[in-house]
UniProtKB/TrEMBL annotation:
Amidohydrolase domain: residues covered: 47-320
Taxonomic lineage of the native organism: Bacteria, Bacillati, Bacillota, Bacilli, Bacillales
Transmembrane segments: none
Pfam families for the chain: Amidohydro_3
UniProt xrefs under SUPFAM superfamilies: Metallo-dependent hydrolases
Name of the protein: Deaminase
InterPro entries hit by this protein: Amidohydro_3 (IPR013108), Metal-dep_hydrolase_composite (IPR011059), Metal_Hydrolase (IPR032466), Metallo-hydrolase_Enzymes (IPR052349)
Amino acid sequence: MVAKTILKNVQIEGSLFDLTLDLMTGCIADIVSSDQTRNAEVDLAQLWDAEGLQYLPALSDMHVHLDKHFLGEPWKPLQPFITLPGQLAFEKQMLESLPTRAAERAHRLLQLLLMNGTTAIRTHVDVDPKIGLSHLEDVLEVREHFKGRMDIEIVAFPQQGLLRSQSMPIMKEALRAGADLVGGVDPAGLDGQVDASLNAMFELSAEFNAGVDLHLHDPGQLGIYTINRFADLTGEAGNSGRTAVSHAYCLGQVSEAETRLLAQKLRDNGVSIMTSVPIDRPMPPVDLLLEEGVRVQVGSDNILDSWSPFGNGDLLARGSRLAEKFGWITDDALLRTYPLLSSASLVPKAGDRASFSLARALNAQHAIAAAPPREAVFSGGMLVGGCWLRGSRKDQVVLA
Ligand SMILES: [Zn+2]
């Protein structure tokens, strides 16, 4: 087996470096300037010349649904969104009509995410009394299959409403079966009981020592009240850093003063905000949240599913949309987008996990602005995505 890969001429901060990837440890063994002469003790290595391609950190898609999309299925015409219960019934009927299992569909989306440079995800997986743990069991199986290439964190997601669909017992089973986090959705709009719904989520969180990630579309003051209570419950449970509110559109629907006050509370209680950067509705003011020290992360959310025909699983493009939406045009501002998309550094060092992408860009800020295709994606030292995987590079040299 080839134990090491050498990537020559990778651009990092305007200079070229040669990276040695160790396939046994999955880490970067060595980084040297490309103009330094390498001593010849390279054994059993394969060599690629990146020819100045830009280094980009591996991406983490923090909100994605592996079990809902129609990728690889025939085209499905959608209906306009009218009411949430109506949409939930529509989605159920669409998913039930698919001939494929959730496992097969999860596999397809994971391949797409890897192709685009994402090597870690948080996925919300539907559980309810009707489908039971069927989707979760499929996603757990696929998680095993992708081990070493994709880190997968699973949220047990009561899409039909935690209380509304009487999903507490099945949520417990899901957390016992291997789900990592407690999910929830619209305590007001769907469950119709904000406090009881939130209390139920935190009850599960305490029982299973699990984090919480709430889907919140509830608007205006209703949403603000919910986030306030969510932050209180996070603080009371000592769950700082382990809870998140996904979407939180309401933060973009109230006065700046009110959002700022709540942002400080989110920061103090360690609650993150997850956004898919919607452009069809108000969204949380990300720059204000960052200014107040709130952790913000980005996810794809819907990708060709019964909610939306849009989305392509490219988180770098999603980051580009975020930067453009908020007018982040200076180099500093463009570069500050990366921590919202990745937990890794723009400047790797020896010993770091060998998970990253290479793209044709002048520098990292240009890559955010242009979101060029990924030429190569490595995860744990293995080539897992990008154009090279599709066979555009036949010229790899194997040194024996
Ligand atoms: Zn979602």
